[in-house]
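Fold tokens
===========
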Amino acid sequence: MSDEQTDNDPGPSSWIGKIREALTDSVHDRDDLVQVLRKAQRNKLIDSECLSIMEGALSVADMQVRDIMIPRSQVVTVQANAAPQDILPVVIEAQHSRFPVIGDSLDEVLGILLAKDLLKLALDANSNRKFDIKDVLRPAIFIPESKRLNVLLKEFRENRNHMAIVIDEYGDLAGLCTIEDVLEQIVGDIEDEHDTDDEVFIKTLDGNHFTVKALTPIQEFNEFFDSEFPEEDFDTIGGLVLSQFGRIPQREESMKIGGFLFKVLNADNRQIRLLHVSRGAAEAAE
């Protein structure tokens, strides 16, 4: 047998072998693992983008659905008893690929409508055939707000689902979460041809809790929260938080600034990506 290393058995001279060697000797917990990966990046064994993805993959194990879900107030739904001519404008304007279908109330989710299932309806617009949305309805998957993102991603892959309905402790609709929302925590924002510059930067979780993208302009943050952070010093809320830390903070680190508690939900070695913002001094004291 040849002494040459195979693809399945990387030798110590390969970058995989070097990282494996380092892991064997010095890693005892997740912080150690992150430090090894960052050292590998400094030594140019992996590039910055690779490190960012690895750290993002680790972060989803600590994050919950409530941290990234589309909140109830922003969920676009379709009424089960709506006429076809009323459904198509909603789908066209929202430009989503999937829509929760509801019954008599927002909390009565009957299933999921795929936009592509309406193509035949659009082509047969002049047809007299009666349209029943139940004929094209897909089952809805319901998950709690507390579900870990790594668990949800595994379920998405195993069940081939792309959307889950998030419910609160009373079984009411709290929001929804898609596979794209989870993947963005690993690889960063995934933009498609429908994304625009006026994307939603701030999502309301409840009256005093919010998720805020670090790229949110200071002006938009001030307008939303009626705050008075200086707009001339920093362009984004992430820049403001970063300046207060004086370094790139790690996930779960928090800091009180001007009556708000900022907790880092997602960050890499270069920038903060996502923040959990709590309003009021009571939260900061917890």
